[in-house]
Task: inverse folding
C-alpha cells in the first residue's frame, strides 16, 4: 500500500469550534480551546501519523475584519492557509449566519482543491433546521462536500478522518513519524499561560497580553520556566497581578498544573509582568512576538 501525506488546513470564523476539532483529530491539546473568541493567534500544526499516512493539520485564527495590526497579522495567517493546503476544512456551526464574512468565503469559492464544509455543534440543532442550513451552504459553496459534525462529542470525526485519507495525495511523510507538532515546547508554555489568562480575566485584558518564555531549562525530572506577561498599560499590570498578587498566583498555579500534565514532569514556574505600550499596533513588536506569517 502506498504512503499518503498532505496538509489539511482548518479555517472559519471565530468561535465555531476549529480548535476543539483540531484537538479531537490530533488527540492532543495542541490548540487552546476556550469559550472566548479570537483565542488562536497563530497557525498551529498538529500531526496525525499512521503506518501508511501522515496528515498535517493546521489550525488558524478565526477570520475577522481587522481593527489593529495584531488582527491584520491573524487574518494573514488565515488567508495563507488557503494557498498551501491539499484539503481545506471550512468550519461553521448551526447558529452562524452563512453570509458572514463573504470576502473570505469568495476566496474559498474559487479554490480548486477539495473543500469539506463542516457544520459543527449539530447537537444544538434539530433535523429540519440542519436541513435548511445544509441547503443554504450548498448554494454558497456548491463544490464543497458537506459533513455535519459535533467536535465536542466526537460525532462525525471518524468519518471525516476517513474522507481526508481518501483525498490525500500519495507522498512520503513531511515530518518525523513521532512528531506531533511543528511548534517548540516554549510555544506551548506561552499558550497554556495565555489560556489561563483568558479563563480568569474579563473584558479586554486577555486580548492585550502576550506571553514570552525567557527561560526553559529541562532535565530528566523537571523543567524550570521563567515567563513574562506583557501588557499595554500600567493599569492592566495591576489587574493581572491583583490585590497582594492573588490573581497572578492563581494563574501561575493553574498554568503549572496544566504544564505538568502536558510535559509529564515536575515544573518550576516563575511569571513576571511587564508593560510594553501598544505592542498590538507595533509591527516591530509583533515581529518579535512571532506574528509574521511570511
Result:
Amino acid at each position: 500500500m502506498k504512503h499518503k501525506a498532505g496538509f489539511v488546513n482548518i479555517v472559519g470564523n471565530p468561535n465555531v469550534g476549529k480548535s476543539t476539532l483540531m484537538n479531537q483529530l490530533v488527540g492532543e491539546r495542541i490548540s487552546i480551546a476556550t469559550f472566548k473568541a479570537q483565542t488562536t493567534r497563530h497557525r498551529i500544526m498538529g500531526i496525525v501519523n499512521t503506518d501508511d499516512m501522515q496528515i498535517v493539520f493546521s489550525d488558524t485564527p478565526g477570520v475577522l475584519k481587522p481593527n489593529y495590526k495584531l488582527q491584520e497579522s491573524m487574518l494573514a495567517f488565515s488567508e495563507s492557509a488557503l494557498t498551501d493546503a491539499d484539503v481545506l476544512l471550512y468550519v461553521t456551526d448551526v447558529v452562524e449566519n452563512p453570509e458572514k464574512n463573504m470576502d473570505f468565503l469568495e476566496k474559498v469559492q474559487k479554490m480548486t482543491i477539495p473543500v469539506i464544509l463542516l457544520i459543527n455543534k449539530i447537537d444544538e440543532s434539530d433535523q429540519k433546521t440542519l436541513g435548511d442550513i445544509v441547503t443554504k451552504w450548498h448554494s454558497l459553496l456548491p463544490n464543497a462536500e458537506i459533513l455535519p459534525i459535533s467536535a465536542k462529542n466526537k460525532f462525525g470525526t471518524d468519518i471525516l478522518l476517513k474522507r481526508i485519507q481518501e483525498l490525500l495525495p500519495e507522498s512520503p511523510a513531511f515530518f518525523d513519524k513521532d512528531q506531533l507538532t511543528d511548534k517548540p515546547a516554549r510555544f506551548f508554555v506561552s499558550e497554556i499561560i495565555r489560556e489561563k489568562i483568558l479563563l480568569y480575566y474579563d473584558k479586554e485584558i486577555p486580548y492585550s497580553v502576550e506571553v514570552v518564555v525567557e527561560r526553559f531549562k529541562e532535565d530528566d525530572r523537571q523543567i524550570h520556566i521563567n515567563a513574562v506577561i506583557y501588557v499595554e498599560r500600567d493599569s492592566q499590570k495591576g489587574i493581572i497581578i491583583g490585590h497582594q498578587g492573588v490573581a497572578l498566583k492563581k494563574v501561575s498555579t493553574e498554568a503549572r498544573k496544566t504544564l505538568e500534565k502536558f510535559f509529564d514532569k515536575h515544573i518550576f514556574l516563575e511569571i513576571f509582568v511587564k508593560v510594553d505600550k501598544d505592542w498590538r499596533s507595533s509591527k516591530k513588536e509583533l515581529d518579535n512576538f512571532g506574528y509574521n506569517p511570511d
Q: What stands out?
A: Residues 222 and 266 are 5 Å apart (CA to CA). Residues 246-263 form the longest helix (18 residues). The chain is about 35% helix and 25% strand. The beta strands are 4-12, 44-50, 53-59, 87-93, 115-120, 145-148, 210-218, 222-231, 266-275.
